[in-house]
Amino acid sequence: MFSISTRRLIQFCQRVATSTRSGVDARRLWTTEANYGSATHKRHVEQIKNRVLAGGTVADGMRDAGGYFPPLVVQMVAIGEQTGKLDEVLFRLAEYYEHQAATRRMFLISIAWPVFQLTVAVILIGVLIWAFGWAADMSGGEPFDVLGVGLSGTRGMLVYFAAVFALLMTLVVGAFVVQRGAFGSTPMLLAMRIPLIGRCLESFALARLSWTLATALDSGMDARRSVELAIDATQNVYYLSHRDIVSAAIARGDQFYEAFAAAQAFPDDFVQSLTAAEMAGATTESLLRLTREFEDKARAAMRVLAFVSTVLVFGLVAFVLITLIFRLFFMYYNTLQDALHAIDHP
Q1: Whole-angstrom distance, CA of residue 96 vs CA of residue 77
Q2: What is the pLDDT of residues 296-322, one digit of tens each?
């Protein structure tokens, strides 16, 4: 089952929120909305329309879509309908996903240059493996071993690219497995302790938690459901593993800061800010401010990470090229020495 794209979700939330706030009739609203987007999107919106016209809710129609809409959207829409704040909730969801999209774009832009450098270096090495093998075949001599592992010619180039692809897939699958929690929460905890990378993971997760908790509370959702939804929104398996502890503490009547502190998993600065917010009676406003603070921290860490990555990739490329130049020099130097030795001692 394909899920809705972020761009289409933002547009969907904005259109429905605007129509709802303007008092557009439900039949007209959903009939018009069913004309936008791809065939898949139209089919799922048609399901929402049929459910609403049959006396159901928008959230019920979204659930019928079988995962097309994110769980966060479905749950927030349900609360928006229950409290009569559907338009406000949808506008907030659109703003939230706009921030998510902007952050993703910034991340991709920040890593574009080091990734480009690394790609060029990998391709260049592969071409050199092939070129030196081809030159050796043409001259009948021994091929120059670029990497020192016995790869040369077309076969060597294919083996090299296969090894690079296998390494890349291992990293991608490893990241996916860590994110999904296939081996529990420990791998994610270890990833969060890696300098810079850990700060990005932690800050983005806490920004999502803060925003979701603030929006859920503001929409009238009860405290326990708000906390559970907020922790789910982190998409961080380490924080998700402590969800039941926080939820149980809220069910006992603990304050939010007491519940999060009981889990012993959330950073001290987050718990301290939440404590001050509850003491001052301005929880929602403080959580929204925390969202911006954690987003700023994540962006700052991402900029530093991109710079460090650029330096490391540049250093790796320089090291490979310099090593290659020296190996070529010594190869030709030894060949020249052998030739001179043969002349002096025929």
Answers
A1: 14
A2: 887 787 778 777 777 877 787 787 778
Beta carbons within 8 Å of 171's beta carbon, 6+ residues apart: none
For the cut 60, the answer to whether the pLDDT of residue 1 exceeds it is no
Question: Which of 71, 94, 117 represents a domain boundary (last residue)?
Answer: 94
What tokens does 70 get?
């994110």
> Closest Cα partner for 272 from 258, 288, 289, 251?
258
pLDDT, the chain, mean:
83
Token pair listed for 42: 């139209």
329 and 198 both lie in a single domain: yes
Predicted model pTM: 0.71
121, 97 contact by CB (below 8 A): no
Alpha-carbon gap, residue 10 to 259, rounded angstroms: 33
Last residue of a domain, one of 30, 61, 94: 94
Contacts of 45 by beta carbon, 8 Å cutoff, 6+ apart? 30, 33, 34, 36, 37
Could you give the number of structural domains in the chain? 2
Rounded CA-CA distance 273/229 in Å is 20
Hey, CA dihedral for 10, 16, 19, 20, is it positive or negative? negative
Query: 172: Cβ–Cβ under 8 A, 6 or more apart, which residues?
Result: none
Residue with tokens 């994610």: 188
Which H or E run includes 56?
A: none
Reference 288, options 224, 208, 226; nearest CA is: 208
- Side-chain-side CA neighbours of 52 within 13 Å: the count stands at 18
Token pair recorded at residue 326: 């020296």
Q: d(Cα 67, Cα 230) in Å, to the nearest integer?
A: 19
Does 143 lie in the same domain as 245? yes
70-116 per-position pLDDT tens digit: 888 888 888 888 778 888 888 888 888 887 788 778 777 877 877 88
> Is 214 within 8 Å of 233 (Cβ atoms)?
no
DSSP 239-291: HHTTHHHHHHHHHTT--HHHHHHHHT-S-HHHHHHHHHHHHHT-HHHHHHHHH
Asked if residue 264 and residue 134 are part of one domain, the reply reads yes
